[in-house]
Amino acid sequence: ADDGYRLWLKYDLIKDTGKRAAYARSTQFIVLNSTNPALKTAAGELQTGLQGLVGKPVPIVASAGGKTGGIVLTINPNLPSINDEGYQITSQKTSLSIAGKTGSGVLYGVFALLRQLKTGQSIDQLSLTSSPKIQHRMLNHWDNPDGSIERGYAGQSLWKWYELPERIDPRYRDYARANASIGINGTVVNNVNASSRFLTAEYLQKVAALANVFRPYGIKIYLSVYFPAPKTIGGLKTADPLDPDVNKWWADKANEIYKFIPDFGGFLVKANSEGQPGPQDYGRNHADGANMLARALAPHKGIVIWRAFVYKADPNADRFKAAYDEFKPLDGQFEKNVIVQVKNGPIDFQPREPFSPIFGTMPQTPLGMEFQITQEYLGFSTHLVYEAPIFKECLDSDTYAGGQGSTVAKVIDGSLHDYQLTVMAGVANTGSDRNWTGHPLAQANWYAFGRLAWDHTLSSESIATEWVKMTLTAEPQSVKTVTDLLLKSREIYVNYNTPLGLSRPWTGVHFAPEPWQNRSSRPDWTAVYYHRADSVGLGFDRTAKGSQALLQYRPQVQRQWNNPETCPLPYLLWFHHVPWTKKLSTDRTLWDELCTRFYAGADSVGGLQKQWTSVKKDIDPETFADVAGRLATQQKEAIWWRDAWVLYLQEFSRLPIPAPYKKPD
Ligand code: GCW
């Protein structure tokens, strides 16, 4: 019954008796000869997993004593061809070995072996070697001290600050297990719109209690910091990053934090962004701010993750260009323990965006990736959007920074510019809902994020298949159907929500369609700012004759997008203001193509519902009903999106809805 809670860590008895017997032969005992905490965690996880899958007790012993048929866990700092967190799994006859350079490496190896079993693969001739491609694979929680979550759609925060540090909710450990099982090794527990309260001794004790639970799972804790904390909780008159007292305050604060949490990861900072204070309030720049914090953390080996999500309330500026304009001139000016964290697209987690033009233009400053797992612009927790294709689309984009093949993935894994620090962060979609993510299938997004942070070369499809087998069913036909449904879901959403490169980050809760919204405290927080509908056409001209944002890309990229005749349709309205009657490559006019996409998108949700119904017999009943209900809501809301856009845009186009879609009056 508690299917949703167990996520992809479901170690139920394997039904296929042949397979089970084969697995049983080489999993009779676990050899553990160390007190390393992560290694002990690894042994415990392996024991739990095997006992469930194979259905018999698996003792943990100190030595094999000459027996074969067991699994030996070892730390060997001299292992070749893996990095510190990598693992090596090998089988010799009926015995298995899982080795790593560290306890965490072995832990990841254990989860990899359990994955082999759970997905029904043979373990007889195993030789698996894997190392994470990104150093810091992190979740960013936008959780507030009062338990609310900014852009959270799965209940309240997991962290019960009012109970900590005394009471440790068992769920903290389950959270750590889930993350470790997909390779996540860091978590920022509080919102980037940060409260300085987290830096007080009272809260540091609470944070330390969480860190103690996460540590044996190889997960480090980080905090978002409020830049003016020296004023708000330190009693200073300024937070100027060049002021000696302010520097001393942060250095002292860092010392205090590391007394509580000796392996504290570092700070995440949102500064001079959307009203948050920052170094610019004192006439300083982002590097001045980041470097001050970096110097405070450096003696403890902590890092500063400084966000590049900045833009000004200027009606004549193009928000698209802001991050590049502010950060590129600072390349090379950051301390070694600073990394700049960039959202995948230049605007804000839209259903489809081109990759941010910063990637590839700061060779001397490590750039990290920020993806959003929570579905702020993707229908919250009621619409189904499998996000791996969104992440992959960005990672696989070619920046041409060092010639052809200079993908965004190679920028952020450090290989292109030889970065010494690498980060991939995902804004978490977890909350206090029993099934963690609200929509049961949204668990796949948390999973896919972790798997891609470990290895960005994995395909969206292979991750989907793996997740379905781990989580929902092993029946081949249903695995195929659910995988297919996941893979389609993003494009369907784009079609009824923002086809052809429309975007919609306007003010408010970001759920309902409101393309008509034209008033706000900021011009760039209106809908009309983004879509630019008028009597001529639709879309934002970012070419040389428009905002010139396109010029921030390398010439090869510009060439892909700067000609409206050849610009791929998914990106068309990102870069061009296109006349309503203009013929597109589909042989339809812009207007007809828009209507076609809105209608086809909304109709396709019905297809998703049918596919889901067809797998009913293989899915846990509670999960089945939950998803079915959400798909029905999605169906209703897709029509609502379609109608809102089409009727609004029709006021400008003054054209009829094309024949196949027009309803009789
Ligand atoms: O996407 C926007 C959100 C804000 C968020 C901001 C950011 C945490 O609407 O809620 O604030 O981005 O990333 O800083």
From TrEMBL:
Stretches assigned to the Glycosyl hydrolase family 67 catalytic domain: 117-436
Keyword Hydrolase: yes
GO MF terms, alphabetically ordered: alpha-glucuronidase activity; xylan alpha-1,2-glucuronosidase activity
Keyword Hydrolase part of the UniProt annotation: yes
EC code: 3.2.1.131
A GO CC term attached to the entry: extracellular region
The Glycosyl hydrolase family 67 C-terminal domain, residue ranges: 437-659
Alpha glucuronidase N-terminal domain residues: 7-113
Active-site residues annotated for this sequence: 274 (proton donor), 348 (proton acceptor), 376 (proton acceptor)
Pfam families on file: Glyco_hydro_67C (PF07477), Glyco_hydro_67M (PF07488), Glyco_hydro_67N (PF03648)
Keywords tagged on the record: Carbohydrate metabolism, Glycosidase, Hydrolase, Polysaccharide degradation, Xylan degradation
Source domain of life: Bacteria
Reaction(s) catalysed by this chain's protein: Hydrolysis of (1->2)-alpha-D-(4-O-methyl)glucuronosyl links in the main chain of hardwood xylans
Gene Ontology terms describing biological process: glucuronoxylan catabolic process
Main EC class the enzyme belongs to: hydrolase
Assembly, per entry: Homodimer.
Family (UniProt): Belongs to the glycosyl hydrolase 67 family.
Protein name per Swiss-Prot or TrEMBL: Xylan alpha-1,2-glucuronidase
Origin species: Larkinella knui
